[in-house]
Amino acid sequence: PESEFVVLFVQFPDLVLHVQQALNDGGFPSVALKGTALQMGKQLDTFLDSTGTKDQPRMLILEMGNEKSSGLNLTKANHAIFFHSLHEDDPQRYKANEEQAIGRIKRYGQLLTCHLWRFLATGTIDEEIYQ
C-alpha cells in the first residue's frame, strides 16, 4: 500500500549504490543515505516528505552499523528489511547491530504495525540463529 514505507539495511558500503540502482531500475524508487551530513539530511528529507506516490521514494537504504544512521527516528517506515546476512563474528555484536537497526522504525511514536523481513541463506549462521 502507498501508506507503507520501508527501511532496507545493507551491511557493506559498496552494495548500497548497487541495491539502490536495482530497486530504481525495477520501479521501486529509493533513497540511500550517503555523503556529507548536509547531503544525508536532504536525502532523509526526501524520504520523510514522500507521499508514496508512483515516482516518490518509499524505500530508504541504510548502511548497517554506520554511526551516521544510528539514532534516526524513522517511524514513517513500518517495514525493516535485512538485505543479506549480517556478517559478525561475535553473536552479541550480531544481536546488538540487529536491535539497533530495528530500533530505527520500532520506537516511541510509531503508530503502525512493524514488520521485519530477513533474507536467510541455508547453511549459514543466520539459519542456525533463527531455528
Quick summary:
By secondary structure, the protein is α/β, with parallel strands linked by helices. The protein is 34% helix and 16% strand. Strands 2-3-1-4-5 form a 5-stranded parallel beta sheet, sandwiched between helices.
Mean pLDDT: 86
Number of strands: 5
What structural category characterises the helix and strand content? alpha/beta
The helix fraction, in percent, is 25-40%
Alpha carbon gap, first and last residue: 31 Å
Spell out the helices and strands N to C: EHEHEEHEH
> Main beta sheet: strand number and arrangement?
5 strands, parallel
Residue fraction in strands: 15-25%
Number of helices: 4
Radius of gyration: 14 Å
Tertiary shape = globular
Order of strands in the sheet with most strands? 2-3-1-4-5
Low-pLDDT runs of 5+ residues are none
Keywords for this entry:
131 residues; alpha/beta; five-stranded parallel β-sheet; globular
Topology of this structure?
Elements: E1 6-10, H1 13-25, E2 30-32, H2 37-49, E3 59-63, E4 79-82, H3 91-102, E5 115-118, H4 125-130
Parallel strand pairs: 1-3, 1-4, 2-3, 4-5
Describe the structure.
This protein has 131 residues and is α/β, with parallel strands linked by helices. Helix content is 34%, strand content 16%. It has four helices and five strands, in the order E-H-E-H-E-E-H-E-H. The protein has a five-stranded parallel β-sheet with strand order 2-3-1-4-5, with helices on both faces. It is globular. The termini are far apart. The mean pLDDT is 86.
